Amino acid sequence: LQECKVQNSSREYCKIFAAEARAVPDFGAVPEIIPLYLIYRPANNIPYATMEEDLGGPCEQYCVTDRDGSLVARGTSEIVLKCCTFQHWVYQWTNGNILVTDMEGVGWKLTNVRIATNLKGYQGLKESCFPSLLEQFPAAHRCNRYCSILGLKTLEPAKPKGSKSPCMGRKSAQSSPQLQKKM
């Protein structure tokens, strides 16, 4: 149940990130977090299981939490850099309250995500809450060209508050990516 909550909550952030990234010229392809489903099998010894799309190949690690508890980007490929930008975006979107910490997948499809949060009981999450990663992230993150393309600000220690979009200086719903495309 926790895995589903973590992955599917992260997926929702990724959808918003994708909408904003698509509205910016030159950003290109965007990672997608695939849904993780919880299935109930009442006649089975283990009544609950998770199910997700077959990614068709071995998973590659893009961003992981190392044994010492630090965040590590595995390489400098476009997908790794965009995963790092997504981490920056979520951190900024939530004013430093949530961070997607682990991402792996095949191509642009991501799975096995984890989060760190300092929000007690956020979305019922208990097991994936590593607030120390939130404190480390501003110093550990190295902005890349995709952070610049989205106009993300250089990170500073967060002051937990409400959420707002870090992209394009949005101040109201009137400047949403969907409306900008129509204009």
Please describe what this structure looks like.
Keywords: Disulfide bond, Immunoglobulin domain, Kinase, Serine/threonine-protein kinase, Transferase. Pfam families: Alpha_kinase. Residues 172-183 have a biased composition (Polar residues). Residues 1-155 form the Alpha-type protein kinase domain. One of its GO terms (biological process) is cardiac muscle cell development. The chain is α+β, with helices and mostly antiparallel strands and 183 residues long. It has one domain: Alpha-Beta Barrel (Protein kinase-like fold), CATH 3.20.200.10. Helix content is 32%, strand content 21%. It has helices spanning 2-22, 78-93, 131-140, 145-150, 177-182; strands spanning 32-33, 36-40, 48-52, 60-65, 71-73, 98-106, 109-117. A 5-stranded mixed beta sheet has the order 1-7-6-4-5. A two-stranded antiparallel ribbon has the order 2-3. A hairpin with a 2-residue loop joins strand 6 and strand 7 (109-117). The radius of gyration is 17 Å and the shape is globular. The N and C termini lie far apart (42 Å).
